[in-house]
Amino acid sequence: MKTQNQRAWLFVTPVLLLVAFNALIPMMTVVNYSVQETFGDNLFFWEGLGWFEQILRSERFHAALGRQLFFTVMILIIEVPLGVAIALAMPKKGFWVPFCLVTMALPMLIPWNVVGAMWNIFTLPDIGLLGYFMNHTLGISYDMTQNPVAAWVTIIVMDVWHWTSLVVLLAYAGLVSIPNAYYQAAEIDGASNWAVFRFIQLPKMKTVLTIAVLLRFMDSFNIYTEPFVLTGGGPGNSTTLLSIDLVKIALGQFDLGPAAAMSLIYFAITLFASWLFYTLMTMNDNKS
Amino acid sequence: MRMKSLVPILYILFLMLPIYWLVAMSFKTTNEILSGFTLFPQTWTFANYIEIFTDPTWYWGYINSIIYVTINTVISITVALPAAYAFSRYSFVGDKHLFFWLLTNRMAPAAVFALPFFQLYSAVGLFDTHLAVALAHCLFNVPLAVWILEGFMSGVPKELDETAYVDGYSFPRFFMTIFLPAIKSGVGVAAFFCFMFSWVEMLLSKTLTAVEAKPIAAVMTRTASSAGYELGLLAAAGTLTIIPGAIVIYFVRNYIAKGFALGRV
């Protein structure tokens, strides 16, 4: 049981001030823009909820949101099972464990624009390793800048490359926390591999996998830099995800009103997901 | 059993391929890159690296990045320590709501904040300074540090605090000499994650800087677009950005998962 102590607020104040400066002021700016129209010269006119209506009805927004959801769903479907499978196959102890952990974590520490640039160099049709292999060795026409399907496959494979290790590391941490006695008991009972996975390993990984799924959901939903550097949203608009579209409207066209309204809608979606995350996580905390 | 050990090997191979290609490119001459496909550099050259280490625009990009990453890590940990202690030890009015609100900032899309941050930091006269980027990155790093530290602190039994008070320790002395050493791995992990997310982030750091505090990411994109397509140079610059991460990762290898689980494995 925690002690009741209102002076704890003093401890939290620095964090509160710092985050409030960073979060509340910009958020108020966005709210302010979202209900006004401007023609430059710092002249603003009341617009009401017009921008929200316009964004929610615009086909461009629907398309970007659709692409974003498709991307996020693909990422979860591929990365979570793959991550768990790799974690299950990893050695439990010995020399190779630190080697695996370090090499697997490496992609996550590369700056996001470098990830994009690296995959660009890797996939160039005639001089990239993958591009050359696909076009000249396998004879499959593969050019990200021309073919939307190739662009989509590439951004998904890039994200799998970049973030599957997150799932692996979390699942692995859950696996090594299982006492050996559990496996011995399963062996005595003659349990199959599937039964061991279903009734011993999976329950032990539940907490970490919840965190992994939700972290991957949020981060892939907010993704900007890597696909932007790799494809620039193209060819055409085929890989223009939500963040890319938002930055285009806000910093490219400087359409403050629509960009602000879109920001708030975007943020509301992420906020809902955060709430889900928090609820699930505290549910797990309370149980243990 | 053999089949099983193939899985991690194949996965690591897949992870290393693009990195290998980046490193290999960085040692090739522009001529070799443009004249066709070669699996290994035919004529090794260090020209790309020499250019980066002799051109101030390039190497200041790295220095700028390291400066704001360091400032950010120091600020984040300093403010997060007392807050995490409060969350792990006390219950107070609004604690749960506050904790949730902190998390929402970690989850906010950076693209939402790009424009208002630009205006905010211009208005307070911090635009194009290291401090601006460091403070902006606090938006997601402070909540993260609070969460990770809270997780580690909750693993320390409360009896430690109580015994220290009975022994006549003042709070600051207890915190510095007993409590901090007890959670030092947590502090290390939190610092690592602040370093990591500040180091890899580009959208905000690029938006908030122009010349004086330009991060390496911005130098790279500008070079890529302005000076034709100098792939070798770009590859060398990319290779160099991997090194700091590769060094620090070794020290926290056993705690990375615990950090991602926000201290809750």
From TrEMBL, chain B:
Domain ABC transmembrane type-1, chain residue ranges per copy: 62-252
Principal subcellular localisation of the protein: membrane
Segments crossing the lipid bilayer: 7-27, 66-87, 99-118, 130-153, 174-200, 231-252
Source domain of life: Bacteria
Entry keyword annotation includes Nuclease: no
Membrane topology, from the record: Multi-pass membrane protein
InterPro entries referenced in this protein's UniProt entry, alphabetically: BP-dep_ABC_trans_perm, MetI-like, MetI-like_sf
UniProt cross-references to SUPFAM superfamilies, sorted A to Z: MetI-like (SSF161098)
Subcellular location: Cell membrane
Alphabetized UniProt keyword annotations: Cell membrane, Membrane, Transmembrane, Transmembrane helix, Transport
Keyword Nuclease in annotation: no
Pfam families named among the record's database cross-references: BPD_transp_1
PANTHER family the record matches: ABC TRANSPORTER PERMEASE PROTEIN, MALTOSE TRANSPORT SYSTEM PERMEASE-RELATED
Family designation: Belongs to the binding-protein-dependent transport system permease family.
Name used for this protein in its record: Carbohydrate ABC transporter permease
Organism this protein belongs to: Roseibium sediminicola
